[in-house]
Amino acid sequence: MDMLKTPPVAHPVAVPPGRPVIPDDKPLRPAPLPPLSGEDVVSATEHDKKNTGSRRVMVFPRAIGQCIVEDASEDDIRYGIATIGL
Question: 75, 84, 83, 81: which is closest to 40 by C-alpha?
Answer without folding.
Answer: 81
